[in-house]
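Hi R.,

As promised on Friday, here is the backbone we talked about, encoded as structure tokens. Could you run it through your design pipeline when you get a chance and send me back a sequence?
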């Protein structure tokens, strides 16, 4: 929930720069393009603009977080058997928003003087997902160099 709130806030600061015309495709640099599918309403992945993709993604994550069967809020109610796979999918998709921001909008982040906040948020996110092996290494490839730099300073 905290990672969702942070990335939602960070993306919110650059939405005026992430438009249908500036980002007609959801990507993280020239080698990584993401197509949206939620498995329910959109079963076959569709190519869409970054703002549309991120809107789909954030709405989908919010729906997962609000689902009492997936994220029970009452004490003593167990998490479902598929909780870990849903959580991994949420984190994998949230990573894509970080990757998009770093690759396509870092100049805007710098102009807004929020790179320290973005970097701190991303570092916390990466350390968490690496500690618990929540995102496959191949999915992290778009920000591999940054992740290596973040890790090397602390080891």
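Update: got your reply. Pasting your designed sequence below so it's all in one thread:
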């Amino acid at each position: 929930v905290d990672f969702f709130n942070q990335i939602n806030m960070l993306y919110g600061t650059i939405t005026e720069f992430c438009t249908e015309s500036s980002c007609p495709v959801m990507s993280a640099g020239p080698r990584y393009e993401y197509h949206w599918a939620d498995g329910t309403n959109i079963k076959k992945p569709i190519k869409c603009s970054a703002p549309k993709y991120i809107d789909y993604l954030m709405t989908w994550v919010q729906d997962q977080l609000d689902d009492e069967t997936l994220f029970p809020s009452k004490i003593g109610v167990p998490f479902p058997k598929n909780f870990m796979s849903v959580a991994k999918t949420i984190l994998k998709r949230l990573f894509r928003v970080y990757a998009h921001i770093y690759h396509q909008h870092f100049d805007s982040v710098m102009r807004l003087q929020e790179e320290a906040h973005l970097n701190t948020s991303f570092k916390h996110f990466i350390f968490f997902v690496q500690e618990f092996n929540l995102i496959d290494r191949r999915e992290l490839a778009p920000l591999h160099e940054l992740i290596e730099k973040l890790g090397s300073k602390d080891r």
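One thing I noticed while checking it: The chain has a mean pLDDT of 95.

Thanks again,
M.
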